[in-house]
Amino acid sequence: MVKFWDPAYQCFTFNQEDMTPTVEEYATLLHVDNVQFYKIYVKNPKPMTFKKKLVKLTDMTDTWAEK
Fold first, then answer.
1. Which Pfam families match (predicted)?
2. I want to staple 27 with a disulfide (CB 3.0 to 4.6 A). Which of 4, 21, 32, 58 is the partner?
């Protein structure tokens, strides 16, 4: 299955056809017993403000970014 996994699209590709697992299949693969099928599961991104990104990209200080 690893051979058919496309990390860019995060799905399986068979003969140029994309296929993604359903919630039921994910629950089976990950051995999750208490999955709620009518609930939306999301991964919360880590909050990073523009100022933090700017400081990280430019290697400057917080005071420089505030100006």
1. DUF7745 (PF24924)
2. 32
